[in-house]
Amino acid sequence: MTGLLYVDSHKLGAVDFNVTDESMGGIGGIMKPLPDYELYREQIQDLSDTKGIANADDLNFRIVLEGDILLKPLGGIGVTHSRDFDEIYVESAGIESEIIEKINAS
User: Domain of 29?
Assistant: First the structure.
C-alpha cells in the first residue's frame, strides 16, 4: 500500500509499504523522494549516519496512506538514509491491526 511521508506540511516522498512484522504492527518500504525532501535531506542523513535513524523525536514525521488514512503508530516513525547509499528506508511500528490487514491485502 502506498503512503506519503510528511514533516509538518512538507510532503517528503511516496513509500510502497509492506508489513515487516505483523505481531508488532511493523511496516517498512523504500521512499521515492519528492522535491520537499531536499529541505530535510542533510538533517536526515546526519541523524542516520550518527545514530542509525532519524525518528519522530527528531522531526515531526507523519504517514498518510491511500484513502487519507493518517497513521498513529505507537512505536513511532523512522527514516534511514545514509550518505553511502541512495536508498531511503521508512519504517514504523505499533500500527493498529486493522491497518496492517489492509496493507497485507493490498
Answer: 2-105
